[in-house]
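User: Predict the complex.
Assistant: Input components as received:
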Amino acid sequence: MQKNDFGPRITREAPRVNRIISREAANRDRRCAEPPSACDNCTVRWQALCAHLSPTELFALNQIARRRRLRAGQRILSDQEQMESFAVIISGAVKLTKSLLDGRQQIVGLLFPADFVGRPFAERGSYHAEATTEVELCSFPSAAFERLVQQHPGIEHELFRQALEQLDMSQEWMLLLGRKTSLEKVASFLLAVARHVRPPGPEGAGELRMHFDMPLSRSDTADYLGLTIETVSRQFRILKSSGAIRVSGARSITILDPAKLEAAATLK
Amino acid sequence: MQKNDFGPRITREAPRVNRIISREAANRDRRCAEPPSACDNCTVRWQALCAHLSPTELFALNQIARRRRLRAGQRILSDQEQMESFAVIISGAVKLTKSLLDGRQQIVGLLFPADFVGRPFAERGSYHAEATTEVELCSFPSAAFERLVQQHPGIEHELFRQALEQLDMSQEWMLLLGRKTSLEKVASFLLAVARHVRPPGPEGAGELRMHFDMPLSRSDTADYLGLTIETVSRQFRILKSSGAIRVSGARSITILDPAKLEAAATLK
DNA sequence: CGTTCGGTTGAAAGTCTTCAAGGAGGGTGG
DNA sequence: CCACCCTCCTTGAAGACTTTCAACCGAACG
């Protein structure tokens, strides 16, 4: 497991892959509805929950699984509402948000392929989950899933491991939200994305990706960093004009000077 | 389980209890070193991990347990360092902090009696754990504890439950850190403490305690809320002069007008 | 009785937000 | 194919909030 993980775990080129996958996924859709062999071709077969399950556990899980496809902006879970399902993300990105009555909003988690969506042992979620891009899910009716978890400790163990990783991440984020300046926030976020958008291959994390696409809009980025979109935009400009990064079309980022970016992420 | 829990779970009069307990605890210290009956008199016997274990699990756990007593300010776990033990808090409060190289610090978690300290499945903690008051721990050598967890799924299940609660709490805190004003932050913190400093009895949470002591110094409060001590102090003064609260001697708080405090916690 | 430490208060400075206006890209319809 | 519109992003200037710097207070302690 990655320690001192910074920010969300972003699995192998999550953001860019969406468009590419989306077509072929339509075919997989049907195949996957037929249990056992369905998982074999799954993109996250060896990274999600599934990778850590015994064949029987996997089979049981697959029995209750259903593929779902969501457009960007579509809601997955809502606070207040009854939670009716759990899911594993196959492609795309999901944001978890909390908000105040007057509309101020904060992204409290960002989930990527292989991550698990849902809050076990609670009837109602405390946050709102929404697709930030087109998203493909492998979802499970909550009742059946919980029954399964009780029978197969392996699933719970893996959920636990993921929960702890999310906890690490949210603590890192609390440090960012409470104590970093806007420039540090933006630089840190860029580095977090760059480090986690990893090339294919087992555990290729840790190295910086020099080129990648932002998984979030400016507005979502602001909500993730506890800033306004204007401030985010301004910090991008500073990093751009200092030669640390290059930005093409608001989403595509190239890191030109990693050291400079790294410095901006920690120094005032 | 409490949903929409706000802030840390503070178990029955956590902050005040410290001084009271500290004397009699000295005696228990020795008794508790002798396994099985030791737990019977334990203050957190029915709230901590222990409450959810089978008799055999509890016995096994007790076999490897050791009581420890720490003074305020003493370190429990350090980032970077090898984690050598896990522990359950018996009395006092423990803060989890993260900091940047230049000294800026953020409290990323606050733990109270019955809470669990330590990060399973990781060699090195990602945070620094420190007693904020005098603290009594029931601690377990990490190797033995991890072996035990593997053998007894009940323990892992309970740890999982606690981890999810901490995750809920840190997400609530991300909203506070990223989106609330200083007045809202302080008011929210006061309410969080008031709501969780609960009178004895099973599940007495939810109601506001009208009088209580702050579990943290101004400096720690600032580090918890992502503010400076001066700002915290100023917001206290505003709440004080608006008649929402009364403050005696910097630690003792009385809520005079709950509605007013509640309003300050959400409105700009 | 002086020192120290944690907390309070005031004034100035700085950072981030708010308000307002101006692009740039992508889709639609003429 | 181009004009138009819509959305998302950028930029500027003014204002608000929080921090910084500095002085002061008061209780605890030797």
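The helical segments of chain B are 14-33, 55-63, 142-151, 153-179, 182-196, 218-225, 229-241, 258-266.
Let me know if you want any component modeled separately.
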